[in-house]
Amino acid sequence: xNPDESPRHSADEAxxxxxxxxxxxxxxxxxxxPWAITLACFTYLYLQIDAQAVRQGQGAIPFLLGVFxxxxxxxxxxxxxxxxxxxxxxxxxxxxxxxxxxxxxxxxADILPIRGSAYIISILNEQVGKGVMAVYLNRRDGVPGWQVxxxxxxxxxxxxxxxxxxxxxGYALRGDQLPEIFAWIxxxxxxxxxxxxxxxxxxxxxxxxxxxLRDRQILHAFRQARWWQYLVVIALRSPALLAAVGVYTLSLxxxxxxxQWLDMLGYLPVIFFGAAxxxxxxxxxxxxxxxxxxxxxxxxxxxGLVQHNFFIFFNAAIGLLFLRRANRExxxxxxxx
Length: 337
Prior knowledge:
This protein is mainly alpha-helical and 337 residues long. Helices cover 75% and strands 0% of the residues.
């Protein structure tokens, strides 16, 4: 018998799904932490912008408005709108591939409203958006909730290695021109590769074959996955990053900042790591641009503000296109798998 179909697991699922109101609520510290991170980032940014504005004999706000006034917004929108739409299609492709591997046969077209509507929630927290996708698939397609949650964990796990892979490619090509702290990237990659090897061997049963942790439903996707499937996910996501390298390079130049294609290949994965830190407005990612362009924090902050927030709000707008269908499928009668 498949471990996922054992009576013990069925009972666990029944208990967990039969008591939805008993989920542990986030404590005050957990709720306040994202806002504290955001406040710290924007305080740092204001001080950096104010210092640059004082050097030019201006106040921080007039200086920042002047930066915005110098940007060719039509050219910027021509870059950002197609990129955001392309990212949505690639992101949905990754979700479709993983759900079809580990959960249920769902057409790609049916994944689009799931991923799109989750972008609305992702305005505040990307990981919460993935949780919404799990609820959506559980409700609409009848996929066991813990197993869908496992697939969302698999997506996040692969995202880490996908960004780390491209960060190392960028460092290999432009390491001597990147900030000194980027020298840690190869060391992090070495440790991550060793961890990945142990991870695959553990879930394949080679290491500690009798250990019960791997049999949990929340780890269903990892138990089913083969090593090559992780690589497929990295390959499927990579076109979105390569497109971002081009778009971000050209966008930075519109804000008056020097940017080279290969340099951006080293910067962007680290920036996207920052965007994954909990907090509204992608505050950590915006602060990282100011760190990279320390001599021009005003332009870097203006760029980060509009770049990251347009991206998340435009994706949310895409989600609104699917919202009516999403609500009908989410709150209507559940469908059998």
